[in-house]
């Protein structure tokens, strides 16, 4: 956004909404409508959603649970009236999906339905014209569910490695299913990347090796109990010791080809990937940024070996298979003055320099004592060895589409500075960081492939009314919306950043929401709340088409703290009494929501 930028998406910020309120709130002059909800039928043979009689077979043909990363990609030549919606399904909340009686009486059925509610969805959308709301098209040709038995092809140097072979896959090249899909990114060539994040929770493991401990794998029964149904989720099973190594990757999907085989790219390393976002450097290389969303874990960058070719989709889909992998080390220029309170350093800025430490370069390991395969499969161990900077949970990491500056969203880290944990430093400046912060990286020379960079903190989040150290790049703190636990990022065509939050109810006592942030000019640091999601929900996958004045979010885990019998949320159907209309249920349903100027036409 240049100085004095105006956007067609004008709005008066909403007031923050108390965390007990079960409402989806939008600014005056806007209205909202769900595009697709958990259980909506995707195919001509899909049964209608029946929450009282859920089956694995039905769920496999319906929209999954807990939609997170979301994008809407226009289909060419359709005048903006057709598109595909991609959404992943991060995890399930059995306690609000099923009645307690069923959880107790039929756990095997519950597990099977929940498994089918994981994975990915692609579904076609249609609308009357560019001003209308989208509706999804049941039975459309591009509709697809990716399930626990969908085959993914491993690419890159670790594909075929002994570390990835199992009895069912002696080649080490084909994995069934994807787990813990969190955020993602849409590539410049039109494919979708999705990050496998909290995969460890799906495995019972020996939990004895350094790698297993470092990745949070342990010899405990899992919460979902899938190891009772399929022994590959119990990696103590002979022949399946490596199954856990086959998750924790960046997945790439071509949403325009329903017969395509999705990929898992080993070149980007294995960790709890929040997501990945790609920008093409001036020299044509594809550069992917990705954060490991774990307290005290790291920020990574991948640089492709080959270069982008405009219009050559097949070639571009190979770019993430081979290249160099780096991990970030940050240095403050005011170190020693950081007291952990989040107060500004004496030089008036949280800022400094950084370097991208090599892990794999030119096809060779840069980490003493580890092979390339080991670096890619046990990337956290490699990054430990080279001395990367321990971060406050990197969620989305996304380059700005015009400036190329990279925004790193650190959501929070309540353990910073506690006990023997790493102390606050200039780039993670708060002890017990409940509210999170955002780093702005400028690669040296504006070159996305540079190995050194400058950085500063754009925001140190919080409610200024309660936390005097909340910092908004110097913008007056009495003129901003309170914000906490930033998670997902989007940019609009006017250059504004949009931040979705996850965790504000427990930190500042407000429901999570979507916020616009001004990045440039005299209003840099201004934060304006656009919407608020229902009780217990997080805001995910924001998409902002500001020229159309349309905003889309995924509402994930509404009513998560409630039960089936005593729901905290009835979003989005809001059936409070009487008989639900056809297709409605009296329970919370994760959903993708469209916000557009009111009144809108269906
Ligand atoms: Fe699934 Fe990092 O949020
Ligand atoms: Ca999530
Ligand atoms: Ca400084
Ligand atoms: Ca997230």
From TrEMBL:
Give the source species.
Sinomonas flava
PROSITE patterns for the chain: TAT
Q: Which Pfam families match?
A: PhoX
Judging by the UniProt lineage, the source's domain of life is Bacteria
Q: Which residues cross the membrane?
A: none
* Protein name per Swiss-Prot or TrEMBL: PhoX family phosphatase
Spell out the PANTHER family in the cross-references. Answer: DUF839 DOMAIN-CONTAINING PROTEIN (PTHR35399:SF2), SLR8030 PROTEIN (PTHR35399)
Please give the SUPFAM superfamilies that the UniProt record associates with this protein. Calcium-dependent phosphotriesterase
